[in-house]
Amino acid sequence: MTEQGKTRLTTNVSEGSLVPSGRTDAYLGIDIGSISTKGVIIDADRRIIARTYLWTEGNPADAARRVVADLGSQVDRDAVRVRAVGTTGSARRLVGAMCGATVVKNEITAHAVGTTFLHPDVRTILEIGGQDSKIICVENGIAVDYAMNTLCAAGTGAFLSSQAHRLGVEVEEFGDIALTSKKPANIAARCTVFAESEVISQLSMETNKCDIINGIHHSVANRVAGLAHRVGVRDQVVMTGGVAQNIGIVNALQEQLGHTIHTSPLTQYNGALGAALFAYQKYLKEQKG
Ligand code: ADP
Asked: Quick check: 29 pLDDT over 90?
């Protein structure tokens, strides 16, 4: 990792110099998803001192090892002592056992806690991940209701990634390309099979790539908006998960829901942050008790 990367990664929620210079207690959170694995280390002031996001590549155990190695490279190993570990995500139990985690939490609880920590006024969390999408209603930092789509790939990051591959662009570029479109191509939202065949047919009609990409974003947003309306959307709305990094989806969802959507480069770590905060709380409780 470059020095520049190191500076960026250690700049965080709170201001100031965050690489610990003394003997500092720290808490590790890992969120192991089917597509990506995220990790954060927080210090005793609950500031993020290291964070990393990488692809799971079908091997959660190896992804967790790579995350821990990368986090370790961002901090002074002699100064930082990890006191407790929390895990979340689909492989949370496996990785929890590997790391000796003291807390293993489901994604909904971990995202609610991590998101509320960064956005105390959040009432609705939209989480579009690799293989599912979720809408979580939050009150006072606690998830009180949710709706989840796991059966259909139409409203997921994996669908966006597969279409990016088909169109020969990186998924990371998808959002910016969509911004250059004047009119989204018509792509169905109900099912990936229909959506894919419409992408192919739009390509054969030589529709502009940016309009097809914009149409794909509207299709995914449409699917997620349908899910969101089932539980109701209340301000403030925060979007998390890897797809929150895609400005095209954020814009299309804002349009369809009629609510401002808050997001930031940190929101993709919200599950890992929630897991780290749980580990921290549990550690403190054990020390007192
Ligand atoms: P998981 O469900 O495994 O936790 P994520 O929540 O990280 O995975 O979602 C993964 C998806 O996020 C990818 O399939 C991709 O569509 C999207 N994604 C991740 N990073 C970016 C990025 N920088 N720009 C646009 N899309 C992204």
From this structure: yes
Mean pLDDT of the residues in the chain: 87
Q: Report the alpha-carbon distance of residue 102 to residue 104 in Å, rounded.
A: 7
For residue 109, the CA-to-ligand 1 centroid distance in Å is 20
CA distances from 12 to 48, 118, 121, 152, 243 (A): 6, 11, 19, 35, 21
Q: Is the pTM of this model over 0.85?
A: yes
- Write out residues with Cβ below 6 Å of ligand 1: 33-36, 129-131, 157-158, 160-161, 171-172, 174-175, 241-243, 245-246, 268
| Residue 263: pLDDT band with limits 50, 70, 90 | very high
Question: What is the distance in A from the centroid of ligand 1 to the CA of 33?
Answer: 10
Helix (H) or strand (E) holding 29: strand 24-32
- Tokens 């690799």, residue? 130
Nearest-atom index, ligand 1, CA of 53? 7
Task: Give the ligand 1 atom nearest the CA of 172.
Answer: 24
pLDDT tens figures, 109-159: 999 999 999 999 999 999 998 888 999 999 988 899 999 886 666 678 888
Q: Could you tell me how many helices (H) and strands (E) the chain has, helices first?
A: 10, 10
